[in-house]
Amino acid sequence: MSAGDIVTSLGWTLVHFLWQGALIGCATALFLTMLRNAKPQARYLAACTGLALCLAWPALELALRLTGESGKRGDAMLLFTAGLVAGTPVDEGWGALLDDQLTWIVGTWAVCALAMALRMVAGLLWIGRAAAHERQDPAWQARVERLAAGFGITRAVRLRVVERLGSPVTAGWWRPVVLVPAALVSGMPAHLLEALLAHEMAHIKRHDYLVNLGQNVVETLFFYHPAVWWMSSRIRVEREQIADDFAARTLGEPRRLALALSELEKLQFSTHHLAQAANGGDLMSRIKRLIRPDTQALNWKAAIPVLGLVIGAVSFAHAAPTKPVKADTEAVLDLKTCKRPDYPAESIKQNQTGTVTRGFLVAKNGKVKESKLKKSSGHLALDEAAQTALQKCTFKAATAKGKPVESWAAVQYVWTLE
Prior knowledge:
The protein is an alpha+beta fold. It has a four-stranded mixed β-sheet with strand order 1-3-2-4, with helices on both faces. A three-stranded antiparallel β-sheet has the order 7-6-11, covered by helices on one side. It folds into three domains: 119 residues, no CATH class; 169 residues, no CATH class; 84 residues, TonB (TolA/TonB C-terminal domain, 2-Layer Sandwich), CATH 3.30.2420.10. The longest helix has 32 residues.
C-alpha cells in the first residue's frame, strides 16, 4: 500500500468521525438523561462506553479502509447523512472536494495531534519530576499509609508536598503518588485534609489514573470534535462523585468531606488533567450532593443533542433520493494515469488468458469511487489483478450540460500470453 493510500484512508476516517462522533454523543446524552437519577457508577459507565466507541469506531473503519474492504463506496452517501444530521444537505460534490483536500486535512490533524501529545508528555514529565524531587512529609506520609490500608490498597502510596499547587492530585498506577499543596498542609485543619486525601485513596483504589490516561489519548486523537470533550468532561464529573461516595462511606462522615471541599473552594487552583484531583467537577454541586442528595429533574439543555439526533433522523427518512443525471458525454479512461496490470505468476504457469470487463463509478473529479465485475475472464486471479490496477486509474468525467457528473464506465482488459 502506498503512502497516498494511507493518507486517503486516514483522511476519510477523520472526516467521517465528524458525524460518527455526533451520533455517539447524542446516544450518550440520551442514556445520561435516562440515568440522571441513577447511581453515578451507571452514568460513568455510559460516558466511558461512549468515549470508547469514539476510538473503536474510527479504528475499525481505518482498518477496513487499509485492507481495502471499505472506502471504495458510500462516502458520498455518508457525507449526505452527516449533512442531514447537522441540518445542512451535503451532496456528492462535497465528497469530491474533500477528496482533493485530504492531504491538508491529515497534515493539519497530525500537527495538532502532535502538539496535544507533547502537552500530555510534558504533564507526565512534570508529575514524574514532582514525585522524585518535591518535599516529603513523614507525618503525613504515615497518615497516607494508614488511609491506604483502610481502603485495602496493598501498593505503597507516596506523598509529596508541592508549592504552587491548588489541590491534591493523584498520579501513577503501579507506584501511585499523591501531590499535596503546601498551602493545604500548613493552612487546612488536619482532619479536613485527611478527608481530601481519602478522596485520593478512592481514585487509587479504583485505578482511575489509567482511565484518565485513556481519556487523554482519545482527546489527543480527536481533539477537533466537541462531543469527545463533552463526554470526557462528563466522565470526570461522575468519577469525582464516585470517589466522593467511596471516601465518605469509608470515613463514615460525608459532612466532613463536604466541609473539606468547601475549604478547598476558597483557594485559587489550577486543574491538572493528567492526574486525578479533588477539585474535579463542580465543587458546589458536589458539596450539596454530599450533604443533601436530591432527585435530579430533567434538564432541558441535556435534551438538545437528543433532539438534534431525532430531527436529523426524521429529515433523512423524508429525504427523497435524487434521480441519476443523464450524461451528454461518457467518462473516458485516461491511459496516462494507468499502470499496466501485472500478470499473475500462477496464471502464466497455467497459461490462463481471457477478457475481463469491469464497471467503474467515476466521480466528478475523475477518480474511481466504486468498481464491480461485469464479465469475468474465467479466472479469479486475472479478475483481481485487473481490478487492483484499473481502479487506480483516473478518468475524464462524464458531462451533462457542460458540467462534470458522476457516472458508470465500463473498461475491458484482455489478458494474452505471447
